[in-house]
Write a structure and sequence with these properties.
Strand order of the largest sheet: 1-8-7-4-5-6-2-3
CATH class of the largest domain: Alpha Beta
Largest sheet: 8 strands, mixed
Strand content: 15-25%
Number of helices: 4
Number of strands: 8
Oligomer: single chain
CATH architecture of the largest domain: 3-Layer(aba) Sandwich
Radius of gyration: 42 Å
CATH topology of the largest domain: Glutaredoxin
Order of helices and strands: HEEEEHEEHEEH
CATH superfamily of the largest domain: Glutaredoxin
């Protein structure tokens, strides 16, 4: 029984009779105190932030690479030309027969626009187009080569066994009507449209790869 005058719930230390009375209101069984609840909330927030960071990191990295480390997405080696029909080129073949570029439709054409004469640059372009055509293997019959010259100088002879080249003499105005003028290499599709242009020092393998992709993508010619 509690001594008179003392409210219930108070107690005295068993060791020191003179110790002041301490009151305590017990917490419900199993209920966490405020500090424990706050710690759990902080841990939960950290977990949510970490998960959000993991989810966002790949997206942020992709944007950073795209904007700060741009890549060249161009796959062709030549200069892509606006889709347009090639000029109406007419001339005379080396054997004296007439030539019209429009009559060559149905095949992929590698045009060597040499200018007045076939000099060293012209010979490099002939070599490049010859090798690019050979690289097509069984598909090389789909590709024809045309050498366009404006002067009377005879072009250099092709190696034995080389085929697919037509030498045509045209007027200077016709040579200048082609994109970039001479000297250059042009690719014309089987419908007669200009596709690509290459300089005189174009990479042989690059031309060959471009032609390979065009042949694979085309169902004509």
């Amino acid at each position: 029984m509690s001594p008179p005058g003392r409210p219930k719930g108070e107690y005295r230390s068993a060791q020191h009779e003179g110790t002041p009375v301490t009151e305590r209101t017990p917490s419900p069984a199993g209920a966490p105190d405020a500090a424990t609840a706050a710690a759990r909330q902080r841990r939960a927030r950290r977990t949510i932030v970490l998960l959000a960071a993991i989810a966002i990191a790949p997206v942020a990295a992709s944007y950073a690479v795209y904007y700060f480390f741009p890549r060249d997405v161009q796959v062709n080696h030549g200069t892509l030309l606006p889709t347009a029909p090639a000029p109406a080129i007419e001339g005379v073949r080396a054997d004296g027969t007439p030539f019209r570029l429009a009559d060559a439709k149905g095949q992929w054409l590698l045009l060597v626009n040499a200018g007045e004469r076939c000099d060293e640059a012209c010979e490099r372009m002939l070599f490049a187009t010859r090798q690019a055509r050979t690289m097509q293997g069984r598909e090389q019959d789909r590709v024809a080569r045309v050498l366009l010259v404006t002067g009377d100088a005879a072009p250099p002879g092709e190696p034995a066994g080389a085929t697919g080249l037509a030498t045509v003499r045209i007027g200077p105005a016709a040579a200048q009507s082609l994109p970039g003028g001479p000297p250059s290499i042009l690719v014309v599709d089987p419908l007669g449209n200009l596709v690509l242009r290459y300089p005189t020092d174009a990479d042989v393998k690059g031309i060959g790869k471009d032609v390979t992709r065009l042949l694979k993508a085309s169902r004509i010619g």
